[in-house]
């Protein structure tokens, strides 16, 4: 069963795939800001919960080791009790002593094997959980980086378009006002007409 954070990543990928391409572009898409913000907001809310869940898995290492230690101590206690029972029987004291040592040795060996196996299992579980979280976070990082680059590209395109519109507007405004040379030409024509009237 996949986690909610995996489902959210899948939903973000599906949403990006479903977005319409930008006019005359094969790499840019049109994104609904509210929808992508909602998905990212939920992703930000769920990520800490997922990390806590895997931290709990990692912490189970201690529980595994404690359980192994308890089993080892139980084996040693049982061996010790058995040893005391054998030693208390005077007639077979030497044999009991030898058997007791053998039982204690076997119990210690089994206890060590349990501890070793539990340590290996706990370390593997921790490694798998950390690798899984690292893979998920790396995937999430890639999605965010791609989204950031796309947003930056869209912003640069918008600025370029606005600059073009500004240049057109400035050109149109300049056409509404005559240049200084035209004004001088009109003044000279009026003066020549006055001179003719005087003559």
From TrEMBL:
<feature type="region of interest" description="Disordered">
    <location>
        <begin position="179"/>
        <end position="199"/>
    </location>
</feature>
<protein>
    <submittedName>
        <fullName>Vacuolar family H+-ATPase subunit H</fullName>
    </submittedName>
</protein>
<feature type="coiled-coil region">
    <location>
        <begin position="51"/>
        <end position="135"/>
    </location>
</feature>
<feature type="compositionally biased region" description="Basic and acidic residues">
    <location>
        <begin position="188"/>
        <end position="199"/>
    </location>
</feature>
<keyword id="KW-0175">Coiled coil</keyword>
């Amino acid at each position: 069963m996949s986690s909610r954070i995996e489902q959210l990543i899948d939903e973000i990928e599906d949403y990006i795939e479903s977005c319409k391409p930008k006019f005359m572009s094969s790499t840019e898409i049109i994104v609904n800001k509210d929808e992508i913000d909602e998905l990212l907001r939920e992703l930000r809310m769920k990520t800490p919960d997922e990390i806590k869940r895997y931290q709990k898995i990692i912490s189970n290492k201690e529980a595994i080791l404690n359980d192994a230690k308890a089993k080892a101590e139980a084996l040693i206690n049982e061996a010790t009790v058995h040893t005391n029972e054998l030693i208390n029987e005077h007639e077979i004291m030497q044999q009991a002593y030898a058997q007791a040592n053998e039982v204690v040795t076997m119990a210690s060996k089994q206890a060590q094997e349990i501890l070793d196996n539990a340590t290996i299992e706990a370390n593997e579980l921790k490694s798998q959980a950390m690798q899984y979280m690292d893979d998920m976070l790396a995937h999430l990082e890639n999605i965010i980086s791609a989204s950031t680059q796309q947003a930056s590209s869209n912003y640069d395109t918008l600025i370029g378009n606005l600059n073009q519109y500004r240049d057109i507007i400035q050109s149109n405004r300049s056409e509404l006002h005559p240049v200084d040379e035209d004004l001088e030409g009109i003044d000279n024509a009026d003066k020549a007409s006055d001179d003719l009237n005087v003559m």
